[in-house]
From TrEMBL:
Highest taxon above the source species: Bacteria
Entry annotated with the keyword Cell inner membrane: no
Annotated stretches, region: Disordered: 28-50
Coiled coil: 60-87
Name of the protein described by the UniProt record: Sortase
One Pfam family matching this protein: Sortase
Annotated signal sequence range: 1-25
CDD domains with a match to the protein in the record: FN3, Sortase_F
Record GO terms (molecular function): hydrolase activity
Polar residues: bias regions: 32-42
Length: 327
């Protein structure tokens, strides 16, 4: 018979202070002249008059203006980031090496302060007063080792190997995969509550069940088995890596132009400039992806250098394009 309650734990709730901020007043952007009509004769075309580019749209709240399709993609990406930070509410746990694939239900505390476990022996319980799997901290899932009828869901958990994977799914199929990094057995009264349930800068998932020799006099197992796991980083499957740099960058009489990048998650382009005697490039303009790929620099001088970088919905910037120089 399995003892249905785990060691008592103390839940410490930390309240984060909220730091206010003061919005900074924005300067009025410089007025950039609109494009002039194309010259009608070859003589005028060869004249030294500056040909002006397209004035970029002024964005007071956002750097780039997004069309509906990109706005939806950006919102989806931001939701993914939120899930990464907050974790997921577990609905199912799968451990391929243990042939475990079962449900997860939320559990809390009993009146005496001990953690609850599910009544059913073929499912597991997630401690819902702690963190969600995938969030920073120690998420905890517990399961029975056996019952009067025989082995329960975590009967073979003691045989799990270091490096094996455990995958948690939410009700929508979103998943988080963890890798076993350690397993320890403790006497009930000696289990390190803070290590198992406490705060952490890492994204951990700890599995708990009973172990040891069953005590028929007290009708309980004397020990607790804890499987410590850590989140497998998802950067290898990054859906939005840094984009490619723009091509065909040209300079002509104050205007910098380029070709768009053929990727459907590009939200805009940044134009950088270095003065003739300058040491560093500085960001001088932002052009949204649906605007004309052209920028006119009214302060262009001979010897100034320019390059353009593309930006995607994840805010990642490409490498520099080829550098062009003002005549």
């Amino acid at each position: 018979m399995l003892k249905k309650r785990l060691a008592a734990l103390t839940v410490v709730v930390m309240t984060a202070g909220v730091i206010g901020y003061q919005a900074l007043a924005e300067e009025e952007p410089k007025t950039i002249p609109q494009s002039k009509p194309e010259q009608q004769t070859a003589e005028i075309e060869k004249s030294p008059v500056k040909r002006e580019g397209i004035k970029p749209i002024v964005h007071k709240e956002e750097e780039f203006v997004l069309l509906d399709s990109l706005q939806k993609k950006k919102a989806q990406y931001e939701n993914e980031l939120k899930i990464q930070e907050e974790g997921i509410v577990p609905a199912r746990i799968k451990i391929p090496g243990m042939d475990i694939d079962t449900g997860v239900i939320p559990v809390g505390l009993l009146d005496n302060g001990e953690m609850q476990v599910p009544e059913e022996t073929d499912i597991t319980g997630w401690y819902d007063r702690g963190v969600k799997p995938g969030a920073r901290g120690n998420a905890v899932i517990a399961g029975h080792v056996d019952s009067k009828e025989g082995p329960a869901i975590f009967f073979y958990l003691k045989d799990i190997e270091i490096g094996e994977t455990i995958t948690i799914f939410d009700e929508n199929g979103k998943e988080k995969t963890f890798k076993v990094k350690a397993k320890e057995s403790y006497k009930n009264e000696e289990a390190p509550i803070e290590k198992i349930f406490g705060s952490s800068s890492e994204r951990n998932l700890n599995l708990i069940t009973c172990t040891g020799t069953f005590n028929y006099d007290e009708h309980l197992y004397p020990d607790r088995l804890v499987i410590y796991t850590e989140l497998v980083e998802e950067e290898e499957n990054d859906p939005y890596p840094a984009p490619n740099a723009p091509g065909n960058v040209e300079y002509d009489l104050g205007s910098v132009s380029w070709h768009s990048v053929a990727e459907d998650d590009i939200i805009g382009y940044r134009v950088y400039k270095k003065e003739a005697e300058g040491k560093e490039f500085e960001h001088i303009a932002s052009i949204s992806s649906h605007e004309r790929k052209n920028f006119y620099d009214e302060n262009a001088e001979p010897g100034s250098s320019y390059y353009v970088a593309s930006v995607n919905i994840a805010g990642k910037e490409s490498e520099k394009s080829q550098i062009v120089q003002a005549d």
